[in-house]
Amino acid sequence: MLWLIICFVLLVLIGFILVGISTYVGWQLTHPKRKALDDSPEHYGLEKQDIKFASLTGDVELDGWLLKPPAGARRENPVTVIMSHGYAGTRLEKGLPALALAEAIVGAGYPVLMFDFRNSGRSEGNLTTVGYLEKQDVRGAIAWVQEHISDKICLLGFSMGGTTSLLAAAEEASVRGVITDSAFSQLSPYLQDNLPVWSKLPRFPFTPLILAILPKLIGINPRHVDALAAVDQIYPRPILFIHSQSDDAIPWSNSEAMWLRHPEAFEIWLTEQGSHVGSYQKQPEAYTERVLAFLSKL
């Protein structure tokens, strides 16, 4: 009898330990440490306007830059490009870096708005929801552009920012088109298959435990982050999907699945080299040409 009691106590203790680890890691994933802004548009010869605007949730103020084309490069009534960064990053999206791409876009005559999501960079907030609340951050940026510049907008997002841009565009008719780089299609199945990439824990038993705990921990259901459904609402507006076939964080099949919903209206560019959000570094000229060609058609 004693050994049965000891086994039961050990099982309960192990269960508590596993739940405790899962809760801690889940909390860390939704409260990632902020990264500092250690670069600036001036290093790329760009003039910036510091801006602040509210997320449509109304509870956080977001910090960003507006980069305007020089007088000689300005187009008549161009689209404004709103860039959205990836998970646990900043507006700099250092893997590209985003400022280098912004330099080319601004040089071609398009204004660019770069900002930090909630709980990132210089923006307010203390919770990251991998798209659920961030969608309202993008919509806040859209509202700012509509008020201060024009109604012609293109969203350009990387990883989580790409998915979030699709979610926002589905609800904002003023968005003329979307460019995504390394986006995931649906958060819940993505996490079921790929959470160990971010948690650094074995799939079993931690992935099911973390996914069971997270909704209760932060009050957000990952199933609501569904870009695969969002692209149906964006159609027939154009989308350009960019994804490296060597991406080991978000498989390229995510972009392919979204493109296949409406291939007659959407474009896809699958690169052969480059890690997650790594296509620009491998082929900066081709990447820039693709982006500028897409913008020219909006």
TrEMBL record:
Q: Report the Gene3D superfamilies cross-referenced here.
A: alpha/beta hydrolase
Q: Which SUPFAM superfamilies match?
A: alpha/beta-Hydrolases (SSF53474)
Q: Which Pfam families match?
A: Abhydrolase_1 (PF00561)
Q: What keywords would UniProt list here? A: Hydrolase
Question: Is Hydrolase a UniProt keyword of this protein?
Answer: yes
Q: Which InterPro entries match?
A: AB_hydrolase_1, AB_hydrolase_fold, DNA-binding_regulatory
What positions does the domain AB hydrolase-1 occupy? 80-203
Q: What would be an example GO MF term here?
A: hydrolase activity
Protein name per Swiss-Prot or TrEMBL:
Alpha/beta hydrolase
